[in-house]
UniProtKB/TrEMBL annotation:
Reactions accelerated catalytically: (S)-malate + a quinone = a quinol + oxaloacetate
Signal peptide interval: none
UniProtKB keywords: FAD, Flavoprotein, Oxidoreductase, Tricarboxylic acid cycle
Gene from which this protein is expressed: mqo
InterPro entries, per the entry: FAD/NAD-bd_sf, MQO
Similarity comment: Belongs to the MQO family.
Keyword hit for Oxidoreductase: yes
Species name: Modicisalibacter zincidurans
Cofactor(s), by name: FAD
EC number of the protein: 1.1.5.4
Name by which UniProt lists this protein: Probable malate:quinone oxidoreductase
Length: 514
């Protein structure tokens, strides 16, 4: 998020001075680090929780459409930078990997069939394939069917044009590009921690920064973005802006099973998502993923949740306690009372043995062998707790931006889909914090070169979407996933469908999509 914002601001206002401050000794070592996240290019293709069923059995695909087109904005930005020649080889951070949804049991098969019918009728998903045939599913993802009984009802959908993203490599490339391009105006300081920040009478901010060696310095800035993962909440509270009141955080740790064994890895080229267990939170949606990290393929399965009071993987066990305030204590207690099942789920997850984790994996990959898989500790997620006039407090599972009324400070809170929609979320932030300049002819012209077609247009215009995908896939070397491929035989004819929300609502909700 921070690297994307810095990139956009530098492109829109080339004379601005920008400094990034990182507490660790290297950039992208927390949430963006490759093994700390699933690396899914979230595009609404396979994530079943983005398409909830209604009471009448209908499928709401608005969120999937929204996230799909927001990811197209990210791909447009990356394409523009690659085409300019200073983002390196896109294969270093982006790989074509099909996205599958996979379900078992008659009820889930009926849901997936209805989901496919609803989605394939929209131009964003017209290439989605559906099958209940075990042989077809085995051809798509052999591990799913190896050792599975023939009488078990199964179904899957597949979109060839999915992606695996190494967000750590992408972040480092974005930042390297900035310093190589303009080291006089863009600075990166690692091993330094922001201890406090205060607003001056003229609306600027003073940031008190401590170096690893114990030195102190103060940076004065007209605009501050707090993109520190889970640590953003405490810095936001220190800012003292009224908009920060009432926010709390609930940390959840993550773990994966990881396999590097070539004989197993070579049999699976897909990101396969399924249903969360009954009573489990959205963050627990199980998936078996192909990952490409530093040129080497691996498999990840999970996530398995855990609980810690740290807000960062490299944080302190006092992080949670230090964010408790009089203004957020009531919402936090309210959330604790109303989420007993979540607490129970987390405790159960913490107590899982390696054998029990592998047993969960076998629901996806029946022939999985425990010795082929090792535990990988993922990054921390801090779910947002917000005041609610009716319930006292609610637990949010999405991404949210909090801004000062004068636009001089903004903070990023929350989690998924996060990095996949970073371009859209940061453009939304820029529009909120710099409304006059954002609307100017100069900034709009520069933005047009970076993101030629915005998500609102792509949601409604099939022709423009096809044009954008063909161009971005060509530049980003995603040609194996043909965005203009013909529709599969099992799909129904496409009918025009437009999301019910208007453009303004879509822009606002892009910041809170989960």
């Amino acid at each position: 998020m921070s690297a994307t914002l810095a990139t956009l601001l530098h492109e829109l206002e080339p004379t601005a001075r920008i400094e990034l401050v990182e507490r660790l000794d290297s950039m992208a070592s927390e949430s963006s680090f490759a093994w700390n996240n699933a690396g899914t290019g979230h595009a609404g293709l396979c994530e079943l929780n983005y398409t909830p069923p209604g009471a009448d059995g209908s499928i709401d695909i608005d969120k999937a459409i929204r996230i799909n087109t927001l990811f197209e904005e990210s791909k447009q930005l990356w394409s523009a930078l690659v085409a300019h020649g200073n983002l390196g080889d896109p294969a270093d951070f982006l790989s074509p990997v099909p996205h599958l949804s996979f379900v078992r049991g008659e009820k889930n098969v009926r849901f997936l069939r209805a989901r496919h019918e609803a989605m394939s009728n929209h131009h964003c998903f017209e290439s989605m394939q559906y099958s209940q045939d075990p042989a077809t599913i085995a051809a798509w993802a052999p591990l799913l069917m190896a050792g599975r009984t023939a009488d078990e009802p199964v179904a899957a959908t597949r979109v060839e044009a999915g992606t695996d993203v190494n967000f750590g490599a992408l972040t480092n490339r974005l930042l390297t590009r900035l310093t190589e391009q303009d080291s006089d105006r863009v600075g990166i300081r690692t091993g330094q921690t922001i201890r406090d920040l205060a607003r001056n009478a003229d609306g600027t901010w003073n940031l008190q920064i401590e170096t690893r060696a114990g030195g102190q310095r103060v940076v004065r800035s007209r605009f501050v973005f707090l993109g520190a993962g889970g640590a953003s909440l405490r810095l936001l509270q220190k800012s003292g802006i009224p908009e920060a009141k009432g926010y709390g955080g609930f940390p959840v740790s993550g773990q994966w099973l990881r396999c590097d064994k070539p004989e197993v890895v070579s049999q699976h080229r897909a990101k396969v998502y399924s249903n969360a267990a009954v009573g489990a939170p959205p963050m627990s949606v199980p998936h078996l993923d192909t990952r490409h990290v530093d040129g080497k393929p691996s498999l990840l399965f999970g996530p398995f949740a855990g609980f810690t009071t740290k807000f960062l993987k490299n944080g302190s066990i006092l992080d949670l306690v230090k964010t408790v305030r009089a203004t957020n204590l009531s919402p936090m207690l309210s959330v604790a009372r109303s989420n007993v099942s979540l607490m129970k789920y987390l405790l159960e997850q913490v107590r899982l043995s390696h054998a029990q984790r592998v047993e969960e994996l076998r629901a996806f990959y029946p022939d999985a062998q425990a010795e082929d898989w090792q535990l990988e500790v993922a990054g921390q997620r801090v779910q947002i707790i917000k005041k609610d006039p009716r319930r006292g407090g609610t637990l949010q599972f999405g991404t949210e931006i909090v801004t000062a009324s004068d636009g001089s400070l903004a903070a990023l809170l929350g989690a998924s889909p996060g990095a996949s929609t970073a371009t859209s979320i940061m453009l939304d932030l820029i529009e909120r914090c710099f409304p006059e300049r954002f609307a100017s002819v100069q900034w709009q012209a520069r933005l047009k070169r970076l993101v030629p077609v915005r998500a609102e247009t792509l949601q409604k215009d099939a022709t423009r979407l096809g044009e954008v995908r063909r161009e971005t896939h060509r530049i980003l070397k995603l040609g194996a996933a043909d965005p203009a491929s013909s529709r599969p035989a099992e799909s129904t004819p496409r009918a025009t469908r437009v999301p019910s929300r208007n453009a303004d609502e879509t822009r606002h909700e892009s910041m809170t999509a989960s």
